[in-house]
Description:
Helix content is 80%, strand content 0%. α1 (6-29) runs antiparallel to α3. The protein has helices at residues 6-29, 47-69, 72-140, 145-154, 165-176, 181-186, 188-215. It contains seven helices and no strands. It is rod-shaped and about 110 Å long. By secondary structure, it is an all-alpha fold.
Amino acid sequence: MDTTYLEKYNDALNRQKLQLESYISTNTGSVPVPTEMSEVKTGKKNFLTDSGWVFIVLGALAFVAGLVIGTDGLWIAGAIAITSGIYCIIKGRRQLRREAFSGVVDDIVGSVDRIIADVSRTWTGFVRAQNQALRSDIVTNDGDTAAKVAELGKVTETAWYHVDMEKVRGTLDEAAAKENLAALHSCLPKVGKILTASLDTAAHAQSDIYASLTAS
């Protein structure tokens, strides 16, 4: 059975893959990432910071009272409370900063999700059109009916494009742990590579269909 007609499908597959790779590279590289902390939504207070100020106020009162009435235990307890309050505020602000970076990651993931949706939609439409045309060519091609039926059975739907979002999130979380906006921005190419690797897998699955027909 003549399979030279498959060349146009392989060529179209390679062109589509290159176009989507370019789309992924361009759009992941331009995902908006804040450049200054002033652009990041950061909470002003939380339980730890509130508790810290309570400790400081009560500790200050106890410290002053202890000095006034000359009770060592009271002013020492006040000093300890003030120290604890300062510690709580520091821990609270660190927590707020971590939450702020987590929010930036959420925004980036949302942008990446939209890129994935666009690629998936384009890929699905392309593969379905390819397979429909391929089935038509098999039917009209020279060869006996049994051979055509066997080849038609090999043209299965592979219109899927799956991205491991846990891997994407993990890559971004690793960068966010540095609490550095530049680190988050610099990891975008890594995210792009994850999306491209998924495209490679999808394209390989489609290419296998053509290879199976060539081998028949």
